[in-house]
Amino acid sequence: MTTIILVNDIDTVHLAEVKAEMANLGSPKIRAIDGGDCLIAIEGSHRLRAAEELGLSVEIEIVDEDGEIDLDTLDWDDNNWFDERVVPARDFIERFTDHPFPMGAATAEIEVA
């Protein structure tokens, strides 16, 4: 099992909807940052929690530091961290991990596909 930090709080109503979709669609694919001792999801908190609860494995795409991130493809607001919508992945990772995640941050224990 792999520990992954979730980027968003879990809404139980939305989680139920996502679990129903995943029952039909199967395992999700999620982008994440390699945080050393754990992964840090940059999207898909509800999909990760649903996969954990349904016992589904998750395909993880580790963000390549030399690539780019299209912020419009993420399911959260970037709090105006960037002026552009497509940013270098290295800049994204540095901003995203600039402050440590709080103790007790939501996590999921997943099987990586």
Task: Give the neighbour order of strands across the main sheet.
Answer: 1-3-2-4-7
Strand content: 25-35%
Mean pLDDT: 85
Terminal Cα span: 11 Å
What is the overall silhouette? globular
Class by alpha and beta content: alpha/beta
What radius of gyration results from the CA coordinates? 14 Å
Number of strands: 7
Percentage of helical residues?
A: 25-40%
| Element pattern in H and E | EHEEHEEEHE
- What is the count of structural domains? 1
Low-pLDDT windows of residues: none
Q: Let me know the largest β-sheet.
A: 5 strands, mixed, barrel
Counting H and I runs of at least 4 residues, what is the number of helices? 3
Key features of this structure:
113 residues, 28% helix, 3 helices, 5-stranded mixed β-barrel, two-stranded antiparallel ribbon, alpha/beta
What this model shows, in words?
- The chain is α/β, with parallel strands linked by helices and 113 residues long.
- The chain has one domain.
- It has helices at residues 12-25, 45-54, 89-96; strands at 2-5, 29-34, 39-41, 57-62, 68-70, 86-88, 107-112.
- A five-stranded mixed β-barrel has the order 1-3-2-4-7. A two-stranded antiparallel sheet has the order 5-6.
- Helix 1 packs across helix 2 (45-54).
- The protein starts with a strand and ends with a strand.
- The mean pLDDT is 85.
Explain the layout of strands and helices.
Blueprint (H helix, E strand, L loop, with lengths): L1 E4 L6 H14 L3 E6 L4 E3 L3 H10 L2 E6 L5 E3 L15 E3 H8 L10 E6 L1
Parallel strand pairs: 1-3, 2-4, 4-7
Antiparallel strand pairs: 1-7, 2-3, 5-6
Compact description:
The protein has 113 residues and is α/β, with parallel strands linked by helices. The protein contains 3 helices and 7 strands; from the N terminus they run βαββαβββαβ.
